[in-house]
Write a structure and sequence with these properties.
Blueprint: H1 2-20, H2 26-46, H3 58-86, H4 94-97, E1 100-102, E2 105-107, H5 110-137, E3 140-141, E4 150-151, H6 155-158, H7 165-188, H8 194-217, H9 229-257, H10 264-272, H11 279-290, H12 296-305, H13 316-343, H14 348-356, H15 361-372, H16 374-390, H17 393-399, H18 411-421, H19 425-449
Length: about 450
């Protein structure tokens, strides 16, 4: 199995160079092939080829091949960057790698690295080293306080996935094929036609198919597998809800607050202050508001309007809505702050010209304001998703503790519940690695899709 993966990597190396390089040669094909083999072999050999042992399952083999593919791809990216440098192509950060001139002084390439060394040391000690330890811990069966641990290779990961390796590979490949087919349709269709409209709708459906594919890849539980599919679904629902409500609400309030009103500075400051509190405090506040026994909202609805408010912790929909509302309220001040700053960059000349041309308020907003805010919107999309993935634990813990029946248990809550509360460090580390890869994947997807539509000041 390992040899087969290395052979595939050896053939993919030259193919990568042929597609990326302007001047491919036999020597470069050989170097790329060797680099791909080395990149693919590092992890499985370092782990002692445990994923290809006789007692391992087909899912373990698939995970090992995926890791080998990632290592080969990273090695090829580095190799291609070296080829580009030899060809004289400009790459990002070239100013740092070369000589820096400032005023009458000249600094060598080592000066920036010397100045950055304190920060790099801190990052290495407090960020990169714990991250590496988490990856190592994810391959072990260990308990909090236990004197020994056992290597389980990919066991902590494979128990989160379906047991059929064929379907495990087929689902993402089908989604990827659907996405590329939709993109091909978009590129070959004429703008402002029914074909382009159909292609745009198909592209959206294709993107959603990726989320469906991941949903099908995770295990529903039973047979010794962990029921991680509900956790994934909860994470998607709550995260999307937080991002949509937080960003749409932040833009709407910022657009209203941007108008010149008396005491506007104080008013805008009061709108921003929720961001200063912690997610745990936000959860506590909304717990006091919606508590079915002594909550302010419950008391007001019953005493003033005679409406019996149901217990939100007994309904999956109400519980998820309460978490989304509390988390959106926490992040909305952050969004307002950036949107207020962005609205100051909107061209007044364009707005006045549109007024003269008879454009309505909706047309001015959609054609002028929104495109001008696209860089800030893209930035907030990334930061809001990061917040929704990582910083909602305190809110959930105070409001629902994952209830009812785990319907508000998202990925980060499940990581802390399994790894800290239950003391199962290996499984908790595996789920944290999974969440880390998900955030990286979603961020790259945003840069490939949303990033292409961002307009930076007429560039």
């Amino acid at each position: 199995m390992l040899i087969a993966g290395l052979i595939v990597a050896a053939f993919l190396g030259p193919l990568f160079v042929w597609r990326k390089s302007d001047s491919p040669s036999v020597a470069r094909y050989g170097i790329a092939s060797a680099a791909a083999v080395v990149g693919a072999a590092v992890t499985p050999i370092g782990m002692g080829q445990c994923a290809f042992a006789e007692e391992t399952s087909g899912v373990d083999h698939v995970l090992a091949w995926a890791l080998m593919a990632g290592g080969a791809w990273l090695a090829l990216i580095i190799t291609q960057s070296v080829f580009d440098k030899l060809d004289g192509k400009k790459t990002g950060g070239g100013g740092v790698a070369g000589e820096i001139r400032t005023g009458g002084y000249r600094m060598g390439w080592w000066v920036p690295w010397l100045l950055l060394s304190p920060t790099l040391i801190i990052l290495a000690v407090f960020l990169y080293t714990p991250a590496i330890q988490t990856f190592t811990l994810s391959s072990k069966l260990t308990r909090l306080g236990a004197p020994r641990s056992k290597d389980v290779c990919f066991g902590n990961f494979s128990e989160l996935l379906i047991t059929d390796p064929v379907r495990l590979v087929a689902y993402p490949l089908l989604a990827i094929g659907f996405i590329y087919a939709a993109r091909l349709w978009v590129t070959r269709s004429t703008p402002d036609t029914w074909s382009r409209r159909g292609a745009d709708i198909t592209s959206v459906v294709a993107m959603l198919s990726a989320f469906v594919a991941f949903y099908a890849m995770f295990s529903a539980g039973g047979g010794g597998q962990v029921a991680y599919r509900p956790v994934y679904l909860n994470t998607v629902i709550i995260s999307v809800g937080i991002v949509v409500f937080g960003m749409v609400g932040g833009l709407a309030i910022a657009y209203l607050a941007f108008r010149q009103i008396k005491g506007g500075g104080v008013y805008r400051t009061l709108l921003i202050w929720p961001y200063a509190i912690s997610p745990a405090v936000a959860g506590l506040l909304f717990f006091m508001i919606f508590d079915p026994n002594a909550g302010i909202f419950t008391y007001t609805m019953e005493s003033w309007f005679g409406i019996d408010v149901p217990n939100y912790r007994e309904s999956a929909i109400l519980a998820q809505m309460a978490i989304i509302l509390a988390s959106s309220w926490k992040i909305i001040g952050y969004n307002i702050l950036f949107y207020l700053a962005g609205l100051q960059t909107v061209s007044i000349d364009q707005v006045e010209a549109s007024l003269i041309d008879g454009a309505s308020a909706r047309q001015r907003f959609t054609k002028i304001v929104l495109p001008a805010l696209s860089p800030i919107t893209f930035f907030l999309l990334v930061t809001n998703l990061t917040y929704a993935f990582f910083e909602v634990y305190g809110t959930i813990d105070f409001m629902t503790k994952g209830a009812p029946a785990g319907k508000t248990s998202v990925a980060i809550y499940e990581i802390i519940r399994v790894g800290v509360n239950n003391g199962d460090l290996g499984r908790g580390a595996a789920q944290s690695v999974l969440l880390f890869l998900a955030v990286i994947g979603v961020t790259l997807w945003q840069f490939r899709t949303s990033g292409e539509r961002v307009s930076y000041g007429g560039s």
